[in-house]
Amino acid sequence: MSSDVGDFQTGWSELIKDVDKINEYTAMHPNVKLESIKIENLDIDGVIFNGAFFEGVIFNNVSSNKSDYRDVEFRNCKFINFNLNP
Fold first, then answer.
1. Beta-carbon-side half-sphere exposure of residue 52 (alpha carbons within 13 Å)
2. Are the C-beta atoms of 4 and 33 separated by less than 8 Å?
3. What pTM was estimated for this model as a whole?
4. Phi, psi for residue 25 in degrees, rounded to 5
């Protein structure tokens, strides 16, 4: 994997503030990876993940409506009040 994958892990907290920034980043680096973090009280409606990998991530009170998750793997993740409507 490229260093871009690690860059997403370290830059996640800044990128999450703007879904357009996440989508721009993942369009250029589709195979992002997040591990062992807690994502809570966020609205990421419209986010696009293609080929992403999430391991040990806790999604708590997250809205991800009208989002696109293609070929995404969730391993040992928890979803608490996670809203996902097409």
1. 23
2. no
3. 0.86
4. -65, -50
